Amino acid sequence: MTAGCRSTGATPELTKSPGKAVLWSLPMLALSLFMFFGQGGIPRDPLRAIPLFCTLILVNVLFYLMIRTGKTDRYRAVFFITMAVLFVISFLAHFQEERGSMALTAGELIKGRTPFCHMVIPATIIPAALSRTIIFPGSILGPYSIASMIVLWLGASLAMGRGFCSWGCFFGGLEDGFSRVRRKPWIRKIAERWTYLPYAVLVVVVVMSAVLLSPFYCEWLCPFKTVTEYFEVNSFQTMLQAFIFVGLFLGLVVVLPILSRRRTQCGLFCPMGAFQSFFNKVNPFEIVIARNQCKDCDKCIRECPTFSLDARSVSLGRTRISCVKCGKCVDECPTGAIAYHVKGTRSQWKPARARMLFIYPAYLFLTVFGGGMIQDGLYRILLLATTGSMVR
Amino acid sequence: MNLLVQGFLLGLANGASCLTTCAPVLLPYLVGEGGTVRRNASPVLHFLLGRLAGYLIFAVFAWEAGLWIRSSPRGGLIFGAVYAALAIVLVTYGFSSPANTCAAGSMGSRLTAVRSRWPAWLPAFMGLLTGLSLCPPFLAALAGATSQATLLSSLLFFLAFFIATSLYVAPFPLAGLIGRSQAIRITGRLAAGLMGIYYFYRGLIMIYGGLRS
Amino acid sequence: MKVIEGLKSGLGYTWAALCIVIVLATFVGFGFWERTLAEGTGIHVSPRFSGGEVRQVTEHNTYQTRLHRLVFDGLVSERAAGFVQIDWVPREKQSLPATVEEEFDIDGDGSIEIRVRVDMVAGKAELLRRAPWVLGADPLITADSERILRIQLRNPRK
């Protein structure tokens, strides 16, 4: 770090002038304009056009603030949480329009109209490799299709590693939001062995999906069925499944994050997150800790939402493999000892450059992937306000 | 001799399915314990012996009682109880606290003490319960065994079947190699516990079905 | 030493800069990647969900009957249990009759294995089994204007 920097974790070079921050934000403005308008121009329907412009403004204002203040997590979280909430509204409205309810019936399953979600990807790999079939009742091409989600996931994983969990996953924003409700945690200590539970869940999901040839996680363990779609409750089994989904959602996505100020579903349960961790090994970005600047206050350990920092990893100057690259530890470190880093380069050398190289692809992904969800969610809200219904 | 060949060939043909029953039970345990290939041969052997005991017990029942357990409406109660017992073993093993990881309360201390005195009983018990459960290739053997003229021939048929299916389990000691790191061992134990929860559900469903009929 | 460090640095920054190219390529070439993945890998939805390929189509006045192939697909080999799916699909702007009664040779060996009577209004199906490896019928499924029935089977080859 250069001498005279403030001990807030802010990157000094970019906070010197608003003009410089605008210059650094211009490429994102150009890219967002290209991605938003390049596909079809300005919509004629004002109920579509207003959300488009609102989203464009939100995206670019947040990015500018991210550059200007040097704070990553604060503004990423605003976008991420907004995306998650509006995704739920958009998704549920879509089901109402298509089939009249959230319930997933046997007919919908056979017709291949179940939207494919990234959470099921690990479970599909072994059967896909051995039999070239996808054990999911979706469609290969089209909206919400298997191929489309796999392409998006692959691009995100190569660019961000497990950063996908903080810059892409449309479910993560829900618990990210709940984890910020309280100012101080009630539950301060969670035993370290539970941080390995996501990997155990991953093993069980992958093995059982291959044995049963059906997506075990979707059928039994997905908390987000509570806010998307669920199996029609018409038997003891489907009632039990609904009970599990709602219980996991309330426990891991709402209550525990509020009490602990951590993303407990991501850090203590999500098998997809565990799977994504391995992509951190083949990603050029990482978070490093300068040991000569660190004063071992443990603030980063307390603040990390996914339990990716502990005494051992801090002493080694790095995060655990589960790091989601949200930037919270970078923002919170009082001595500025933590920074983004590009593998292969000298540690703590030009951290601002490393940060910029990371947040550009990460924020662009969030903008394009999440921007559509925000637009449609806002459209549904405007539709409700003007017509009394979220569906046409 | 013809009998042994028949049982052996049937076991070879169906043994891959054995993996779907045995792997979810045994692999998390082997990974959770870590250890070398040589060290893991012992729990695998105990597991197989437990499984053989389960097979032979069932062979006796099947021949003596003429499939009464399988065809009886109360069969679900018995097999459900077997699954539930297996589940309790796995859950207790998976979520108890071993000595070399962070303490998680006193829940596992009694189990830890028992395990340290009788290390062989756990995989053998898991093997027994797995052998008693209705695994798909086992059903194929059951049909063959119950058609034998004497109890001895039924037992020999099952023995030959068991040997053939055990060949598929032979590579399992290698699983311990990936349990060299503590993180993977903890993951293995937790996975065993989670599998236990699933088997508990299956056992409850079978018990419920048995009670209703 | 400095040369190697410089080389590592250069490669690191290049790799990092490529990430924005990856993200752009993902979205700009999205349709291309999607089709390439689908056609290049030949992946398809598991027949345990889709019902498998249609083996035989029988034309009627106002509807079609589609008989799918037997589905015993396992991970590497066939499983001991499976099913066969039958769809009743009305023609465009037509509707299904109130009841349908049909016989099916489900395995193509020339002999009839099942006879099915379907009450389309009540949404119920009755099955008459003529082969020991036919186990039973699942509840009749409604999908749009179609009716779908899955018959559970034991694999006669196992």
Explain what the structure shows.
The complex is a heterotrimer of chains A (392), B (213) and C (158). Chain A is mainly alpha-helical. Helix content of chain A is 57%, strand content 4%. Chain A has helices at 18-37, 46-69, 73-99, 106-110, 121-131, 146-160, 164-167, 172-178, 197-212, 216-221, 236-260, 264-268, 271-277, 299-303, 311-316, 328-332, 351-387; strands at residues 103-104, 133-134, 230-231, 285-289, 338-342. Chain A is globular, with a radius of gyration of 21 Å. The termini of chain A are far apart. The relative contact order of chain A is 0.16. Chain B has 213 residues and is mainly alpha-helical. The N and C termini of chain B lie far apart (41 Å). Chain C has 158 residues and is of the alpha+beta class. Chain C folds into two domains: 2-41; 47-154, no CATH class. Chain C has helices at 2-28, 30-41, 47-50, and strands at 44-45, 54-59, 63-68, 71-73, 78-90, 99-104, 114-119, 124-129, 134-137, 141-143, 146-154. In chain C, a hairpin with a 4-residue loop joins strand 4 and strand 5 (78-90). Chain C is elongated, with a radius of gyration of 25 Å. Chains in contact: A-B, A-C, B-C. Chains A and C meet through helix 4, helix 5, strand 2, helix 6 and helix 17 of A and helix 1, helix 2, strand 1, helix 3 and strand 10 of C. Strand 2 (133-134) of chain A pairs parallel with strand 1 (44-45) of chain C, so a sheet runs across the interface.
State the end-to-end CA separation of chain A.
Answer: 55 Å
Number of helices of chain A: 17
- Number of separate strands of chain A: 5
Note the overall shape of chain A.
globular
